[in-house]
Design brief:
With about 725 residues, the protein is an alpha/beta fold. It has 3 domains: about 240 residues, Acetylglutamate kinase-like (Carbamate kinase, 3-Layer(aba) Sandwich), CATH 3.40.1160.10; about 180 residues, Aldehyde Dehydrogenase, Chain A, domain 1 (3-Layer(aba) Sandwich); about 150 residues, 3-Layer(aba) Sandwich (Aldehyde Dehydrogenase, Chain A, domain 2), CATH 3.40.309. The chain is about 40% helix and about 20% strand. The chain has 26 helices and 24 strands.
Amino acid sequence: MEELDRSRAFAKDVKRIVVKVGTAVVTGKGGRLALGRLGALCEQLAELNSDGFEVILVSSGAVGLGRQRLRYRQLVNSSFADLQKPQHELDGKACAGVGQSSLMAYYETMFDQLDVTAAQLLVNDSSFRDKEFRKQLNETVKSMLDLRVIPIFNENDAISTRRAPYQDSSGIFWDNDSLAALLALELKADLLILLSDVEGLYTGPPSDPNSKLIHTFIKEKHQDEITFGDKSRLGRGGMTAKVKAAVNAAYAGIPVIITSGYAAENIDKVLRGLRVGTLFHQDARLWAPITDSTARDMAVAARESSRKLQALSSEDRKQILYSIADALEANEKTIRAENELDVATAQEAGLEESLVARLVMTPAKISSLAASVRKLADMEDPIGRVLKKTEVADGLVLEKTSSPLGVLLIVFESRPDALVQIASLAIRSGNGLLLKGGKEARRSNAILHKVITDAIPETVGGKLIGLVTSREEIPDLLKLDDVIDLVIPRGSNKLVSQIKNTTKIPVLGHADGICHVYVDKACNVDMAKRIVSDAKLDYPAACNAMETLLVHKDLEQNAVLNELIFALQSNGVTLYGGPKASKILNLPEARSFNHEYCSKACTVEVVEDVYGAIDHIHRHGSAHTDCIVTEDPEVAELFLRQVDSAAVFHNASTRFSDGFRFGLGAEVGISTGRIHARGPVGVEGLLTTRWIMRGKGQVVDGDNGITYTHQDIPIQA
């Protein structure tokens, strides 16, 4: 559930922000100002200021900058003999006094260039003990923020009563990290951002290759697991101090992000809810598990919960689906908010339009998903149906019944609506489920998973449906052939092939969706144009969209071919030709007939007749869905009988190849294999069979004394 953290952390509108920049960010090698980084930081803060945010800056770096300047001055004023003597450490308070004016001078110069006014506020620990000081501080800062002034805070180390900067951690605050946390609370900020020289908080020293970035800090989970490295090379406390300050602020109600001050636009990314740095929040423990579950733990828990689900009455299982449908509609705004973040991230990353299109969750799509879940609930209970009943011998009756497969592992890309379809099918069929969605939809998947599992009663448990959030867990899951019964990959050819090659678990699915529409010479032209247009344009990114248009050669002569081409091109479809069509129509030649565009593009080729179309489909198709448009019934029947695909249509768009449109309620995927299900896979494809025998004390005893009758018994409805 870690994917939910950013949107939940900023559930309310962020207005007032405290940004703390560390010494390691402010200064570079030798203690000199890192002008480039500071310039980029000032630009980000100025932009936020102009956008209406109230920005408060807490800046370290004065002591380091002052030390560098005083060392230079000491060097200039020293004789050669002086330099041979042992050099004493410079007084930290003197360094602070010299460095503070230099640091502020830079900020003023930079902000002036950006048409922003900045103000310096130096504070001491002892001042915060005075109630009147705190009141005046709030009034002064409010007045500055109303005037769009950026207050810049620092501890007044030059006259601090501490024994020495960096050596005394006593008091109300003890460094600029804790000062930033204190100011965030005192000034009622909506967000605190601590900028460091690393990406965030790691499980160990960032230089250790085994250390992993912690995206969401959970006190109960992480406080005893983290190994801190050295403190800051220049500052007072390093990451230890930042974590302490962040925890204090977060558990007092201020969301905190620790992230890198080296990366441009990180502050902007934080405010847009993007997953950068480490989040600290008082509710973090509610969003992610405190203890890590292994892949086996998840699979075993899903199996145990599935057995509890199967033990419920048919009506109770149906009610779970109704509750899920209601929850989807009730949480539409939350789902869309998460989904919009995914879409924005995908667009920013430059993903193809077809992939972005698959991501989008519109109100209509959410409503349609809820309707499909209710349709599933209203279907006949698939579990425990008697498929065959036989009298084996007198008084000995055998029944073949439908039964859940067990635990399913579904790996899918991009489409978050697939999660809802798959989860509802798993519940209807009584199966446990493990889901791994694409990183493009991680926020959408996380909120949908939460909405669904929250609707599952405690008697079954939310562990019925596990959400796998890391790609690293997939190889471990694919090894669990003793607890996972079926893998269904939904995605690219590469994804499906990789999974098939790395697991002993049965795999159901299709690698490609290269669907064909063959327009015969005996077609109804208007019908052909409607079907061809719908098959390509209704949803170009879908696996059942037309990718190749095959046209009978005679249609070139009567201009029907040109009408079909115009119908596609006038709607923005990019066309590529096969060897024949490219010459006839002057189209760029397709690189391959085996290409799935998943966009407003397709291949066109001219064939001799229906036999040429069938041969082309068998050589270049993916056995998904293929269609013929013709008014000749003999040609149609020939095509329907001989095309060896999972779905073959006559005078109907390939877009009908869908579990919901087939009346299956939903689909877990489309299988182009032959074992054990083919075509759109609904509830029935997620079932197996088992045998139930009822007797009256019969024994085999070498088959002596028993007469086998093997008579079929009618199944009562």
